[in-house]
Design a protein that fits this description.
Blueprint (H helix, E strand, L loop, with lengths): L9 E3 L10 H12 L9 E8 L4 E5 L12 H12 L5 E9 L13 H14 L4 E5 L5 E4 L14
Parallel strand pairs: 4-5
Antiparallel strand pairs: 1-6, 2-3, 2-4, 5-6
């Protein structure tokens, strides 16, 4: 049986094209990104979650000399939300980065582990989570569902 999978996303030339309510999230993510602990890679990542109750949660990557003991910004924020606000759905996840591991105009896409956590978070909350990826140049990618980043997550149907 042949099946087809279509992933839809929006590409914006700059994050300033986001709806007015989402634009302040970029500055918040950039601020927390600057505070990341990344002495080994020099690649900093910041994430902001907006919960359905309006609470905003930030996270940044935390490296560790005993690699892979560190944690990505997305998982820092999502795990904090799960611990402090159990049962409150994540409506939006916005991610930014700073560093020369990727070109300034390239899309910063979450790693596989983060994609799995995003997918499971959506599954657990039984509703989609908007994911916004902002490149260093401002080029922006908007996904209406986090599961579009990982189409066949582990343990999901």
């Amino acid at each position: 049986m042949q099946k087809q999978l279509v992933i839809s996303y929006q590409e914006l030339a700059h994050w300033s094209e986001l709806p007015a309510a989402e634009q302040p999230l970029v500055a918040k993510a950039q601020s927390i990104c600057a505070q990341a602990y990344a002495p080994y890679s020099q690649f900093k990542v910041g994430a902001v979650l907006v919960l359905e109750n309006g609470v905003e949660i930030t996270g940044n990557n935390q490296e560790n000399i005993a690699y892979p003991s560190g944690l990505c910004a997305e998982r820092v924020a999502l795990f904090y939300a799960g611990a402090q606000y159990p049962g409150v759905a994540v409506e939006t996840l916005l991610i930014v980065a700073a560093g020369d591991l990727i070109q300034p105009d390239d899309c910063l896409s979450p790693c596989g582990s983060c994609r799995q956590v995003i997918a499971e978070s959506e599954f657990r909350q039984e509703k989609p989570m908007k994911v916004i990826l902002v490149s260093q140049s401002g080029r922006t990618f908007v996904f209406e569902r986090g599961t579009d980043l990982l189409v066949f997550p582990f343990g999901m149907h």
